[in-house]
Amino acid sequence: MKKILLIITICLTVCLSFPQQVWAFCGFYVAKADTKLYNRASQVIIARKGDRTVLTMANDYEGDVKDFAVVVPIPVSVTKEQVNVLNPKILERLDAFSAPRLVEYYDYDPCAPPLPVYKTQEAPGVAREGGARSDQALGVTVESKFTVGEYDIVILSAKESQGLETWLIQNGYKIPRGAKELLSPYIRQRMKFFVAKVNLEEYEKGGYVNLRPIQVAYEYPKFMLPIRLGMINSKKEQDLIIYLLSDTGQTELTNYRTVKIPSNVDVPEFVEKQFGDFYKAMFTRSYEREGKRVAFLEYAWNMSWCDPCAADPLTPDELRQAGVFWYDPNGPSDVFITRLHVRYDRAHFPEDLRFQNTPNQELFQGRYVIRHPFRGTISCQAGKEYLRRTRQRQEREAQTLANLTGWDINKIRQQIDFVNVHGQVEDTPWWWRKERPERNR
Hints:
4-stranded mixed β-sheet
């Protein structure tokens, strides 16, 4: 309780240092746009310092686990000691901490302004033998194989993509035929292939409900994430959430544009109950406006604090689980998170993602604001002016929402409780109820 009171006191102090119209990151979080909004959103954590990388991949696989297989290009060969299996809650924690959020404020009585009061809401063996052709004939070398947790893992190198595709199919990996087209560029770059499938005995012994994330540590000067193999199974657009952890500041893409998601805008009160629909519509509209060739920055922050907090910052143990190998709990906090949201397909993302860590520590979050009007009795001249300005504000909120989402402006207005000059709530004005031509809106 003392901690909560301290946070509230600090927030109120900061907020009261600025006029109401420019309050920045105070307020209280009431909803968030996490990965649950998307049916098949893949999640990846990349913790990198210098040339050292810890990559964590979450499996959103649906179906019989005996058919599961993942093939990931990696720049160097790795050993069993460099591979780990994680509790999926670490991804849930990072998602919750960095998700775009909705916050709310309450207007105070303009005739007797007290300190603002805010409402808080809590809101069986690897790669079986056999096949028509030998590994050597196919140009495939098995560099190592081992089991970690419920996964049988093989590290491969290959001389040509047709041979690698044939080897994978002959050895029981359920990959689509035709994968050679996307395997070929990685073979030309002399990359290795991290191949995993489920060890059914270990899986059943562990009593797992879902497949757990796989984590790989390696050292390599190039900072990249292969995404093209993710396009083998689907010709549709796919969502990818990337949590990038560095010791310096924001992590940036070097071969695609990064655009900040529209943020820090006021939206109508009813959006609180439709926040998921709002965010999906806004993201899709922004994605289309940008030509479908950009990554969206949804969050950038020092991981030692948050404002407003959609979830508590990660503990030292959770940071280590996430791959932050350099973290020293007795030293300065030097973990910065960048959350990127990429919606990609073959046509618009022909290259893998390439990154660089930067010293830029600019803070950013996808943040959307609800301002609840004062709905008590108005008994002063200042109150009448407040109502006039609030009515204008509500109309601006409606227009902003329509512009961000593409939703019909009249349907938006019909869901807003507009204030009137007497300080009471009135229905949507009659002249906005009827559908009108676009030119008259």
